[in-house]
Specification:
By secondary structure, this protein is mainly α. Helix content is 69%, strand content 0%. α4 packs antiparallel against α5 and α5 packs parallel to α8.
């Protein structure tokens, strides 16, 4: 099955609504964005975080990503098979799930949310070692979800270091 999304049809509203897995994999429609669907998916995750934060504490939201990861393995696997492309750019459930714990970590301020957002997008686009290697070797829904999880780990590490060093001169760390 080809991994290049340029040879397949672009998912549309009909595809989105044809199966619950499509609806999930396409991030409830965020993946249909004609420009930067991954960024649209991350923005949807941020909006989802704010909605969930009205009735759930940040730690619960962060841990909610665990079962949502496995939902994504299933949904992205089904959507990939049905579209004929394992990891289409319109599949943004991986961005949504991977960003939720970062959003929860940065819950204390909009500036920290913006920093977490920027770091996650940077690492998700850049895909430093070993992310790109995993992306090429790990197939199916698990492969779709894994590369964004790893990008979130890089973003988390950088986020923590930036916050730590930003507060150190103030004597707060």
């Amino acid at each position: 099955m080809p991994a290049d999304s340029t040879i397949s049809r672009r998912p549309d509203v009909r595809f989105l609504l044809a199966h619950p897995a499509h609806f999930i994999a396409l991030g409830f429609g965020a993946g249909l964005s004609p420009v930067a669907p991954g960024t649209a998916g991350t923005a949807a995750a941020l909006l989802g975080y704010f909605a969930l934060a009205t009735f759930l504490p940040p730690l619960v939201i962060a841990f909610l990503a665990i079962p949502l990861f496995f939902v994504g393995v299933w949904a992205c696997g089904v959507a990939g098979r049905n579209l004929g492309v394992e990891d289409h750019g319109a599949f943004v459930w991986d961005e949504i799930v991977a960003f939720l714990p970062l959003a929860a970590l940065a819950s204390s301020s909009l500036a920290l949310q913006a920093l977490a957002f920027a770091l996650f997008r940077f690492f998700d686009i850049w895909k430093p070692f070993p992310i790109r290697q995993f992306e090429k070797r790990v197939r199916g829904g698990f492969g779709v979800m894994l590369d964004d999880l790893l990008a979130a780990c890089y973003a988390y590490l950088c986020f923590a270091l930036i916050v730590l060093f930003a507060h150190r001169p103030l004597g707060l760390a």
